[in-house]
Specification:
Blueprint: E1 7-8, H1 10-16, H2 21-41, E2 47-59, H3 60-63, E3 74-88, E4 91-97, H4 102-105, H5 109-118, H6 120-126, E5 129-130, H7 134-140, E6 150-152, H8 162-165, E7 178-182, H9 183-190, E8 213-216, E9 220-223, E10 226-230, E11 239-245, E12 248-253, H10 272-279, H11 293-307, E13 319-321, E14 323-326, E15 344-345
């Protein structure tokens, strides 16, 4: 496995090491304030582009941990890839965050069984809508496969990275890219508990060359305006992207399916405000897994603290769900109260090593 050349956040490491859940939460909140100021002080990312990939159904009971009141069994959510460019040691680097290969992802047991239940046409043509592939979005941005330095996912649910990095006879689509992944997540997919199994593509990491994988044990600072934060709970090795833009500092993950899950008292979705008020809950978890809900709650507080309030409406925070609640006729009463829309910063371009030469 490869080592990484990036700086870390000692304050987050110290807070995360506290074994007591309540004091750990308090320490993470304080550390989040320090991390936010550090990221803001170093400026913005060079470029950011969000790219919608697919809209698909997801159980309502999981999306809001049972808090939402609706007869609809499923919400609809749109999965996005975020393209981020940053400077590291003077060189322009390109990261793809959540480049989901949804053609392979359908083989995750949960969605494969949904396909068998409703049939391919209903589950993939009616309930799902494909916006574009990773390949088509990169072409639209003017990037080639060898421009990509890193890929990363907030977690490995429904991910099959063999097509991107090679493995089991597959040819790597990205010839240079390395996978940034938390060590705990990488080890998790190798030996799944039965309750974890439905959400992972079988053999989705098998045969990936070791030199294409960078194992992380802590939060890292990729470059000015860009960091990866360790946010365990939704999965054991969950992580989040923090990216500073002209619109503010955004945090991206799937710890929640809607921005309002971080300020539930401002939610207009039936049941969310009442549940938060009744339980005294600061956040509403995306709860399809219960590996460690205390950690997920604390991680969401960290995300909320780092992101800070929205410049558009300070009732909400700058959390950008990587799979975001989307209004649909199939999900009455389950439309987002607030959405950031797409995020963009600067102009995505080819790195200096691949830029076209002057004639």
């Amino acid at each position: 496995m490869s080592t990484h050349p990036f700086r870390t956040f000692p304050e987050l490491d110290a807070a995360s090491a506290d074994p007591h859940a309540a004091s750990k939460l308090r320490k993470l909140r304080r550390a989040g304030e320090q991390v936010r100021e550090k990221i803001l002080s170093e400026g913005t990312a060079e470029a950011v582009a969000t790219c919608p990939l697919i809209t698909l159904p997801y159980p309502t009971a999981f999306a809001f941990s049972g808090a939402a009141r609706s007869p609809a069994p499923y919400i609809m959510m749109t999965n996005r890839m975020t393209v981020v460019q940053f400077r590291h040691e003077g060189a322009l680097k390109t990261l793809l965050f959540n480049p989901t290969d949804y053609e392979r992802g359908v083989h995750g047991p949960f969605y494969w069984n949904l396909r068998q239940k409703y049939g391919a046409f209903l589950s993939e043509k009616v309930l799902s809508h494909r916006h574009g592939t990773v390949q088509s979005h990169l072409a639209q941005l003017g990037l080639r496969p060898d421009d990509v330095d890193y890929i990363a996912f907030d977690h490995l649910h429904l991910q099959d990275v063999r097509g991107w990095l090679g493995g089991e006879g597959a040819t790597a689509y990205f010839p240079r890219a390395k996978l940034l992944v938390m060590r705990r997540e990488w080890e998790l997919v190798k030996d799944l508990h039965p309750m974890q199994y439905p959400w992972f593509v079988p053999h989705g990491t098998d045969g990936v060359p070791e030199d294409r994988v960078v194992l992380l044990d802590e939060s890292i600072w990729l470059g000015p305006g860009v960091a990866i934060l360790s946010t365990p709970g939704h999965t054991q090795g969950n992580m989040s992207l923090a990216v500073n833009t002209d619109r503010g500092l955004f945090v991206v993950s799937e710890n929640a399916v809607a921005t309002e899950c971080f300020t539930p008292l401002s939610s207009g979705i039936p049941g969310i405000k009442a549940a938060a008020d009744h339980l005294g809950a600061e956040v509403i978890l995306n709860g399809n897994t219960r590996e460690n809900s205390l950690d997920q709650y604390s991680s969401m507080v960290l995300e909320k603290t780092v992101a800070g309030p929205s410049k558009i409406d300070p009732s909400f925070v700058n959390f950008f769900p990587s799979s975001e609640l989307t209004a649909s006729i199939y999900a009455p009463g389950l439309s987002p109260t607030f959405s950031h829309g797409e995020i963009s910063q600067g102009t995505v371009r080819r790195g200096s090593a691949h830029a076209p030469r002057a004639a």
